[in-house]
């Protein structure tokens, strides 16, 4: 991918996102739409995956047919909201390997601290897609991507539902080599770090917590 930021303006993505943003939308509908949107975004982020051909036999004759090249993709969920995006992407790419990164924000230093980290082996040989619905300040996303790089990942993409300009700038500064695919670029962050107009707390909305 060449662009640092791709906003997927497909009508189905935009329509579903509008329903997700509405505060009256139920947890069940929010979850279902997130699953559907994640597949449309995954379609975009996998557009330029490396391809090769392999010889196959159709019922009619032999041919060299296109197929994905290289090791299985790695999908990395940034906990906990990343899991909502992960489910849909996994339906589209069922053979992908899956990892998890858990970070929380230290209340004193305000820096992300790792509490869980488990990723597939041979990250250096895989296309790695990190998923987190909300790219807000970008601090935890940038930290998560750094952990993946420290594990050897060289070809990383970042998939989110909503991005704030602050988060995009932070990622561009820390990881200019990591393309971002999102459904919308919103106006900015409020004082509490929420994306405006946003959709609220993505984790709470998908898991029905408060
Ligand atoms: N995380 C969320 O869930 N929502 C925001 O608006 C920002 C970060």
From TrEMBL:
What's its catalytic activity?
UMP + diphosphate = 5-phospho-alpha-D-ribose 1-diphosphate + uracil
Q: How is its activity regulated?
A: Allosterically activated by GTP.
Q: Which UniProt keywords apply?
A: Allosteric enzyme, Glycosyltransferase, GTP-binding, Magnesium, Nucleotide-binding, Transferase
Q: Where does 5-phospho-alpha-D-ribose 1-diphosphate bind?
A: 80, 105, 132-140, 201
Whichever gene encodes this chain, its name is: upp
Name its GO BP terms in alphabetical order.
UMP salvage; uracil salvage
Record GO cellular component, one term: cytoplasm
Outline what the protein does.
Catalyzes the conversion of uracil and 5-phospho-alpha-D-ribose 1-diphosphate (PRPP) to UMP and diphosphate.
What NCBIfam families does this protein map onto?
PRK00129.1, upp
Molecular function terms in GO for this entry?
Answer: GTP binding; magnesium ion binding; uracil phosphoribosyltransferase activity
User: Which Gene3D superfamilies does the entry link to?
Assistant: 3.40.50.2020
Sequence similarity: Belongs to the UPRTase family.
This protein's pathway reads: Pyrimidine metabolism; UMP biosynthesis via salvage pathway; UMP from uracil: step 1/1
Instruction: Write down what this protein is called.
Output: Uracil phosphoribosyltransferase
Q: How is the cofactor bound, as the UniProt entry phrases it?
A: Binds 1 Mg(2+) ion per subunit. The magnesium is bound as Mg-PRPP.
Known cofactor(s)? Mg(2+)
